[in-house]
């Protein structure tokens, strides 16, 4: 399960990669986000009502109501930040969004931890000619608007990322052998506008030779990017 990722690139880089018109960029002056955690706010590329791509901020994790096992009173909603590929068309939590509201999640790396007290964090990115670079890429996601009693802000927009079987690079660092679904730029349009059947064909492990571990360290909780590394 991926519970931590980073998005270090600014608006211009995101607009360029995801082909978003500047007038549809709703992020404001986006700042680097070295550690995005469940319920945290992050940039998402989604289709507007007119079918055009937009850059929007959403909170990470679909919300479901919870009650205290002791008192029965409502407590903070649970955030479901990962959706398994084998549940997309079966689960009521996921199926509507997968069919109607798919999105792209911009990022520069995601983390998996191994061990305990303290854990070692391994940050994964896509490969490039520059060994220190953090290229921008996209994870397959879905989004929805939460009901009013669960919202943590006025907009109430949330996103979740889709996971699949891990490739050979990620598998040793994930206890359950899972990884996020990484999409190539040529697949973005199909993911956003294709049929559920066409989208499902894109849900597969990313080639391990096209990825790399960009950072690792004991107790690491963020990826500051190569410019800030000593």
Automatic annotation (TrEMBL):
Taxonomy, superkingdom: Bacteria
UniProt family annotation: Belongs to the SOS response-associated peptidase family.
Alphabetical keyword list: Covalent protein-DNA linkage, DNA damage, DNA-binding, Hydrolase, Lyase, Protease
Entry annotated with the keyword DNA-binding: yes
The EC number(s) this enzyme carries: 3.4.-.-
Matching Pfam families: SRAP
InterPro entries assigned: SRAP, SRAP-like
UniProt xrefs under Gene3D superfamilies: SOS response associated peptidase-like
Organism listed in the record: Parasulfitobacter algicola
Top-level EC class as recorded in UniProt: hydrolase
Protein name: Abasic site processing protein
PANTHER family, per database record: ABASIC SITE PROCESSING PROTEIN HMCES, DC12-RELATED
Organism taxonomic ancestry: Bacteria, Pseudomonadati, Pseudomonadota, Alphaproteobacteria, Rhodobacterales
């Amino acid at each position: 399960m991926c519970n931590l990722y980073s998005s270090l690139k600014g608006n211009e880089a995101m607009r360029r990669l995801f082909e978003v018109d500047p007038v549809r960029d709703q992020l404001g002056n986006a700042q680097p986000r070295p550690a995005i955690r469940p319920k945290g706010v992050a940039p998402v590329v989604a289709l507007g009502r007119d079918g055009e791509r937009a850059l929007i901020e959403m909170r990470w994790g679909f919300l479901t109501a919870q009650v205290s096992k002791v008192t029965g009173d409502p407590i903070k909603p649970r955030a479901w930040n990962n959706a398994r590929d084998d549940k997309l068309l079966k689960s009521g939590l996921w199926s509507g969004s997968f069919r109607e509201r798919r999105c792209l999640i911009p990022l520069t790396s995601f983390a998996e931890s191994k061990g305990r007290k303290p854990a070692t964090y391994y940050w994964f990115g896509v490969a490039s000619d520059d060994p220190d670079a953090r290229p921008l890429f996209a994870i397959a996601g879905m989004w929805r608007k939460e009901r009013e009693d669960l919202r943590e802000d006025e907009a109430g927009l949330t996103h979740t990322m889709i996971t699949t079987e891990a490739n050979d690079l990620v598998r040793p660092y994930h206890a359950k052998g899972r990884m996020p679904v990484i999409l190539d730029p040529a697949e973005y349009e199909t993911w956003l506008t294709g049929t559920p059947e066409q989208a499902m064909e894109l849900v597969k492990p990313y080639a391990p030779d096209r990825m790399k571990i960009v950072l690792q360290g004991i107790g690491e909780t963020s990826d500051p990017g190569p410019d800030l590394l000593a």
